[in-house]
Amino acid sequence: MAQPFATKTAAEHGTHIFVYNNIRTNQVVYSLTRSLNLPFLGKKTVPATLRRDLWTPLCFVTFPRPNIGLVAYRRLRELRRLHETSYPLSLITETEDGPRKGQFMSTKKRGKVLMNQKANSVADMAAVLLMQEKGPTQEQLEERQKRYSRITRLKAQGKKKLRRSHPQEVETGGVKGVTIRWADLRDTEFAETWPQEVVHEGLKISGYTAAWPEADLGEETKEEKAPIELLEGAGPEAVGAKA
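-> structure tokens emitted (243 positions)
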């Protein structure tokens, strides 16, 4: 059966990034679709089933071109992985007075600390968009050309089967056309600065699942009808990005 909220074609994959937030643990999950895939951060940090009442949209990012969205998605996941695996030991050290002061936290408590990534995730989004605003460096462009030449040579020699016929496209710079729809516009304050061209809008939450523009859904069949009401835009007025 067709999935009504999946990206319609492979060419559109990466146009949208869904960002979910757990209201109890402040855990943040990025997804290219409406589905959730939770990272493992220690014993009992991944529940057997997802409680939909605990997961709410943090924001919904739309990109003008899929390749820009895919690059941003990859970078956001890489930064989140760094937050989860490369952190100062003081973050997981007991600071409260007691017999365990100065010792490492228990596995359960450490998992809760590492799951609290809401502030980091918003700052990461701003940092990634600022990087994409500047565009690729000359070194990145040269590396892409080298990789393209190598893949072309290997294909000509028939030595290796390649998953892609061409190397992944490097973003050409600029974030014009990028729109972020926030469940709470105050969350933008977790980042010090945003690119001027990024547009911030509000969401009117009428369900507990991420938004999907009505224009992209098309007409739903009886079997594909959405089980819950979608989030809708707060209005035509957009809030400019913070300087």
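The chain is about 30% helix and 15% strand.
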